[in-house]
Specification:
Blueprint: H1 23-34, E1 38-46, E2 49-54, E3 57-62, E4 80-83, E5 93-96, E6 102-106, E7 114-119, E8 123-129, H2 136-149, E9 152-158, H3 166-179, E10 184-187, H4 196-203, E11 207-211, H5 218-226, E12 251-254, E13 260-263, H6 276-282, H7 284-290, H8 307-313, H9 319-337, H10 341-369
Helix pairs in contact: 2-6, 6-7, 9-10
Length: 370
């Protein structure tokens, strides 16, 4: 949803319009306004406190009253919140408004918890450095989470100036486009400005979150969009193109050309979290092929009449894509099964059925060969 999708509230709160405030947020906030609370958008969260932009400017508030047991409900950068009015010391965040979208990944915890990286995001900008070999599997992971969040993904191939051969660059773009159906892929060089104007036009229409590994050039890209050296930049290692974490917290900025940008720390792990719909979107061509399979629960392995296997055989579908699709689905299912006993039982039954079908297929094959 873009900043211009709804007319901004024509009250003093219209000073928040540049941060995404609109008539729908005003309607959501009305019950809190009756209590004398003040609206604000979270710019940064740090150790139980957060900075928010309010009609009176940037304020610091304590989040003690909004610390839930569910980690998915913690306040995060991009949230719209209800804050105590001026005069309290300290001021407290009393609540946050229901999120339109949320970018979530799984944590490294064994408890299958999710971690919210940004809220109320319209565009998910996935920064991929051309200074290192393309990891298409990682791109697919980011895309799955982006689609699941409700945001529109955009893949930005940073450091395009390191690929001076136009033909070579076009091949790299084509590889990523094949990996990202329905997603714009934009080569950008923050060094010489190539591609940045197109990117500015995209992000001017709402709130964007900038994602990627350390060393992907996110901070340099953020500075290019902001028109100032707001984010620190560190050199990457020549050996593998990786860098240290430059950004250590998630920060929200207003862009000079319109729109809002949330910069995030480099992500080493990109674990899926309840992202089956996102996976299906990333692998849309496999999903479409599966509709032509003879069996609705086809595993796309040895089943007769499998349209996916047929596409592999005639070269329409590449084995890497199918392997990646299977891997991400399995990972997502395992994560979900940790907290869902019924789903665990269903998965066991599916595994047993597929194992039996595989053994029967092998026996038939051996019978034909004998």
């Amino acid at each position: 949803m873009s900043l211009s999708s709804h007319s901004a509230d024509q009250s003093p709160l219209s000073s928040l319009a540049a941060y995404g405030w609109d008539s729908l947020w005003a309607a959501e906030f009305a019950p809190f306004a009756e209590r004398g609370l003040v609206p604000g958008r979270v710019l940064r969260v740090d150790r139980g406190q957060c900075d928010l932009i309010t009609p009176e400017g940037v304020v610091r508030a304590d989040t003690e009253y909004v610390v839930p047991r569910d980690p998915m409900k913690v306040i995060c950068t991009g949230d719209w919140a209800a804050v105590d009015p001026d005069g309290g010391d300290p001021r407290y965040v009393q609540a946050y408004l229901p999120r339109r979208t949320a970018f979530v990944r799984s944590t490294s915890s064994k408890r299958s918890e999710g971690q919210i990286l940004a809220a109320n995001v319209d565009h998910a900008i996935i920064a991929v450095s051309l200074a290192a070999e393309l990891d298409l599997g990682r791109v697919e992971r980011f895309l799955a989470l982006a689609w699941e969040s409700g945001a529109q993904p955009l893949v930005v191939l940073t450091k395009a100036d390191l690929v001076p051969d136009p033909v070579g660059l076009s091949y790299l773009v084509s590889d990523v486009e094949t990996t990202a159906p329905g997603v714009q892929v934009l080569p950008v060089s923050a060094l010489d400005g190539d591609g940045t104007e197109v990117l500015r036009a995209v992000v001017a229409g709402g709130t964007s979150v900038l994602l990627g590994q350390s060393g992907a050039g996110k901070s340099t890209l953020a500075n290019a969009l902001l028109g100032a050296d707001v984010m620190d930049v560190q050199a990457v290692r020549d050996l593998d193109g990786k860098g240290r974490h430059t950004t250590t917290t998630r920060n929200l900025f207003v862009l000079p050309g319109g729109g809002v940008l949330i910069d995030t720390p480099g992500l080493r792990g990109v674990g899926l979290y309840d992202a089956e719909g996102g996976v299906e979107q990333v692998f849309a061509e496999i999903t479409a092929l599966a509709e032509g399979c003879r069996f609705h629960d086809c595993a796309h392995t040895v089943e007769p009449g499998c349209a996916v296997v047929a596409a592999l055989a005639d070269g329409t579908l590449h084995q890497r894509r199918l392997d990646s699709y299977r891997k991400l689905l399995r990972e997502n299912q395992r994560l979900a099964a940790r907290t869902d006993a019924r789903l665990r039982d269903e998965m066991r039954q599916v595994w047993k059925q597929r194992g039996r079908m595989g053994r029967e297929a092998m026996q038939m094959k051996r019978g034909r060969m004998s």
